């Protein structure tokens, strides 16, 4: 009896704890995240910036994607990536900044790259590194070169990437330089994004409550759709002004 009890007790300790299932719940702009992973603040080929905001958590798929991208850019001879906001430890809406980034599947990456730590003032002054001149919406000379195009190519080509939000003036640059490459369709024009692009991954396999986004329209998006964004460019707000806190799925409570 004693032996059996002892065996049972021992086996309880020997059984590894059941791993917490990582799960993206709800929509990109109304959801949350369970079992998040933190992106280490630095690693081969990248540095996390603005880490004081504690927005460096994500679904493991996102963490692995970012680490993989950083090693690919490093192998391509590029300097370190500056990775900004992912999500908070449990996802959900930020108090400021973006509407999305709620399910741990979104990440902001700067176009600027460098092999040195970035000073605190520079981290908070992305305007210094803007690629776009704001009143004219012209791409500033020398800021979107072959390296930035290659960065977008490496970022967008991965099958787990659903789409990348990018300033319309930069999408127009890509359309000029690489219109026939299939990944160009994933670049979606959006307001703002003067110094960074925003990667969004697909819903991970086995996350039944993750709400996918509508598919990207057919074509490379370089035609009428882009033209309409560029036509309206002087009116494009930096961020939308009318914003109400979203209703989150019930599974996000508690
Ligand atoms: Zn973003």
Describe this structure in words.
The chain contains six helices and 13 strands. The protein is of the alpha+beta class and 254 residues long. It has a single domain (22-235), classed as 2-Layer Sandwich (Muramoyl-pentapeptide Carboxypeptidase, domain 2). The strands form four sheets. Strands 4-5-7-8-13-11-12 form a seven-stranded mixed sheet. The model is unreliable at 1-13 (pLDDT under 50). It binds zinc ion. Zinc ion binds at residues 98, 101, 106, 108, 198.
Topology record:
Blueprint: H1 2-14, E1 23-27, E2 30-34, E3 37-38, E4 42-43, E5 46-48, E6 57-58, H2 60-75, E7 81-83, E8 106-113, H3 120-123, E9 132-133, E10 138-139, H4 146-157, E11 161-166, H5 168-177, E12 187-189, E13 196-201, H6 224-231
Parallel strand pairs: 5-7, 11-12
Antiparallel strand pairs: 1-2, 3-6, 4-5, 7-8, 8-13, 9-10, 11-13
Bound molecules: zinc ion (ZN).
Zinc ion binds next to strand 8.
Tags for this model:
alpha+beta, disordered N terminus, binds zinc ion, Muramoyl-pentapeptide Carboxypeptidase, domain 2, 13 strands, 254 residues, two-stranded antiparallel sheet
């Amino acid at each position: 009896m004693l032996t059996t009890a002892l065996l049972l007790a021992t086996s309880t300790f020997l059984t590894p704890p059941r791993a917490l299932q990582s799960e993206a719940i709800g929509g990109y702009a109304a959801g949350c995240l369970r079992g998040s992973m933190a992106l280490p603040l630095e690693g081969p080929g990248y540095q996390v910036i603005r880490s004081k905001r504690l927005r460096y958590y994500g679904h493991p798929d996102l963490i692995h994607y970012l680490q993989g991208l950083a090693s690919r850019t490093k192998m391509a001879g590029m300097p370190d990536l500056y990775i900004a906001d992912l999500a908070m430890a449990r996802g959900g809406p930020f108090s400021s900044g973006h509407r999305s980034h709620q399910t741990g599947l979104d990440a902001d990456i700067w176009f600027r790259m460098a092999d040195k730590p970035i000073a605190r003032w520079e981290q908070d002054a992305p305007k210094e590194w803007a690629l776009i001149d704001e009143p004219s919406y012209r791409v500033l000379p020398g800021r979107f070169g072959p390296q930035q195009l290659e960065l977008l190519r490496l970022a967008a080509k991965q099958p787990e990437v659903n789409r990348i939000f990018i300033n319309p003036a930069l999408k127009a640059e890509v359309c000029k330089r690489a219109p026939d490459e299939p990944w160009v369709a994933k670049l979606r024009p959006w307001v703002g994004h003067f110094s960074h692009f925003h990667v969004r991954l697909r819903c991970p396999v086995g996350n039944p409550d993750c709400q996918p986004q509508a598919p990207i329209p057919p074509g490379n998006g370089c035609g009428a759709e882009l033209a309409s964004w560029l036509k309206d460019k002087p009116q494009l707000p930096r961020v939308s002004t009318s914003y109400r806190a979203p209703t989150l799925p019930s599974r996000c409570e508690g």
